[in-house]
Amino acid sequence: MSDLWLTTIVYGNLPDFGPIDQAARRARELGMTPHLLSMPFGHPVAIDFDHGAFHPACKPVQRAGGYQGWGGSFHHPLDEILAEENRKLYERFGPCDHFLDDDFRLADSPGSVGGCVCPQCEEAYCRAAGLTRQRWNELLDDLRGNNPSELHRQWVDYQCDLLYGCFRRLEEAAPEVDLGIMVMYMGSERSGIRLDAYREKLFRVGELMFSDRDYDPTINKTRELFSVLTHRRFSLPGRTFSETTNFPDNALSKENMASKLAVSTFADVRNTMFMCCVPADYWPFFEPKMKKEARYQEILKNHPAKGPFKHYWGDAARYFIGDVSNSLFLAAGVPFEVCSELPDDGWTFLGENDARALERGEIASKGTKCFARTDSRTGRFEKMDETFESLFAFRRTILPRLRRENIPYIEEEVPIVLGWYPDARAALLWNLQKSAVTVHLRRGEQTAATEIPPLETALAREGADGGWTFI
Ligand SMILES: [Zn+2]
After folding, report:
1. Domains of the chain, with CATH numbers?
2. How many CB atoms lie under 10 A from the CB of residue 16?
3. What are the tens digits of pLDDT across the range 42-74?
4. 117 C-alpha to center of ligand 1: Å?
């Protein structure tokens, strides 16, 4: 462990610095670098009213759907107060890293569209956007009905401007502090987070499966990987941190928690940040696995993953209601790649908002074949159940082509995430099952077998003769 993050601002309030100074001193004595973390607005779901009263400048939020509560919002002058507090943190701690926690957002949950519609916010927005009362009511209808109108999109853009404006005010008040944003699971523009604006910043990717109950289902592993891959499209690997969390305490087994390191390897997230208590007996279990993943990451870093299955999460998916990705393809034993637009080849598995955007003609395929889920309300696409049965049945139809085109794949029909890095002449395999599995990695006529322990990864290198060796 090299760095320690100390909580400072909570709900707009500066803390009692005594215990924080003490913890920072102790961290330095132990050879660790102390940094700062803040919960500036209050988490909309996990608010702990006993932990600290809200700053008087904090106000409750009112959502378009009628919900009223606290957190996940700010009203001027809280932004100025936070900027001043960031300057005070700099004066006390000097240059340091400072992460704003994932309450630094303007929506309650990953799938909901944010923004406050209280009278103060309504007046400010109508003035800024030149909206009449009638158009404001149309906007509220669009927000409630998830209507992807221009009015709706402009509202989301305005929320992104608000939040980034607040971020910039904090930065400008203390330019020596390296300010970062922690983005919640699938967090994006609909929550006021214009992902591209934070590309150069310290960035924490969004994870969610914090307990065994959430992490055990295979599809939730692929959803978590999908979220992290999405965020890494918008961040720099060396400036990116994981959101490794065990919540409530001890709800995530050490085996599951360690296996999340694989997500960081696939997404090239270079820093692991534990956002929780790590029980003492977890550390000896983690040590060899952390070393192994670090070794794999060193081999794979800066080499893009390539493959015929496409990861795509477009503007519509990021702007409108809905955070459910179509992610199980990641575990079908076929290499995948992350795309920022619909590509000209391969097969792309769309979430509902992107499928509808494609149907409306807002985006176009350059040649990739798109699948929507069977429950999609779109009309003109081929659809596929998000199940292994359907994915593997489809896979059988494309295997001759994969062999012909010299694309590697896993011969067995078992849940394996396969990353292929042609530039590094390497392939990374992740066994998503809680039992060991023996698999064959095949490329063309070459195969190599290995047994992968439960939830573990394995790395294969390709020799000059085209043969594969697991290292
Ligand atoms: Zn408001």
Report:
1. 3-300 (3.20.20.80), 309-470 (no CATH)
2. 8
3. 998 877 776 668 999 999 999 999 999 999 999
4. 5
